[in-house]
Structures are given as C-alpha cells and as structure tokens.
Design brief:
The protein is mainly beta and 156 residues long. Helices cover 14% and strands 47% of the residues. It contains 3 helices and 12 strands, in the order βββββββαββββαβα. Strands 4, 5, 6, 10, 11 and 12 form a 6-stranded mixed β-sheet that branches. A 4-stranded mixed β-sheet has the order 7-3-9-8, with helices on one face. Strands 1-2 form a two-stranded antiparallel ribbon. Strand 1 (7-9) and strand 2 form a beta hairpin. The longest helix is centred in the middle third of the chain and has 13 residues, at 62-74. The N and C termini lie far apart (43 Å).
C-alpha cells in the first residue's frame, strides 16, 4: 500500500504531495472583463491570475462547492451556473509537484449591483484573505498576465 506524504502548505492552498487536488473555478464576465484573483505562488515567480473558486471538499458535488467558494471569496450568490468542462494541470510549485483537476463553470452574479464593484474581498479555504478584481480579457490575450488554467482564454 502506498504511503501518503505529509500535507504541504502553500500560499493559496494546502495539498498532499503526490495526490491529485480537485478544484472548482467560476468564470464571471462583464463588458469585456473577467473577474480574477491574483495568486503569487512563489516569491520569485510572476503573479498568476485565476477565476474565483477553490478546493473541492470530499463529499461535495462540484456545483455545490463552487457556490460555497464564491460566497466565501466574493460574498455573492451565483445565477445561471453552467458547467464548461474540466482541465487537468500537472506542474511544480517551487520544488513540489502539483496535480490538479479543475472543474470549470461559468456563471452570473445574482446581485446586479456587484458588477459595479471594482474589488471583492473574502477568504479562501485556508482562511487567507482573497481579493478579486475585474481585468480586461485583452490583458491576458496580449500576454500581459498569466491566466490559470490556460483553457480559459479559449472559452472567453
């Protein structure tokens, strides 16, 4: 029987080395912009942007989990939620291997007034503060910022 490695803590989430981490993310678009949070995964790396969301907890369905994560990170409810697909990411973070299965959704903010907000504040699954903002899609298409996962640019 394989032995599990101890949990490793990174800036944006906890994961077990040698395991696959399921993640749920939701794309929100408005007037040529996409709502993203900035992640700096290691001090020497450039920032990475990703839609709001987080880890999928055992026993939760992905569509339930994304609603919970959005409430925690943005303080908002989702309407017109639709499943776009999955993306598999195998990378390294610092010296640690990382393997994620991303369940990608598209939705709308139920509170129309939220589209006028420039910033959203909340917390991630580890209790760390999260800040999300609207970024022009052209920012990513012109390679001025890295969007995770890469598949998102094909969908927006």
């Amino acid at each position: 029987m394989p032995t599990l490695m101890p949990a490793q803590q990174t800036q944006d989430h906890a994961f077990v080395t040698g395991s696959i981490r399921p993640v749920v993310l939701c794309i929100f678009q408005h007037k040529g912009k996409i709502l993203v949070k900035q992640i700096t995964r290691d001090a020497s790396a450039s920032p990475v942007y990703m839609p709001p969301g987080g880890g999928l907890i055992f026993g939760e369905y992905s569509w339930e989990s994304i609603r919970i994560e959005i409430k925690k990170e943005l303080g908002e409810e989702i309407k017109n939620l639709s499943f776009l697909g999955t993306s598999e990411q195998v990378t390294t973070e610092g010296q640690l291997p990382k393997h994620e299965i991303v369940f990608l959704f598209k939705g709308e903010l139920a509170n129309e007034a939220a589209y006028q907000q420039e910033m959203f504040w909340g917390e991630d699954e580890t209790g760390q503060p999260v800040q999300a903002t609207w970024k022009p899609i052209s920012f990513f298409k012109k390679n001025k910022g890295k969007l995770y996962p890469d598949l998102i640019l094909e969908l927006v």
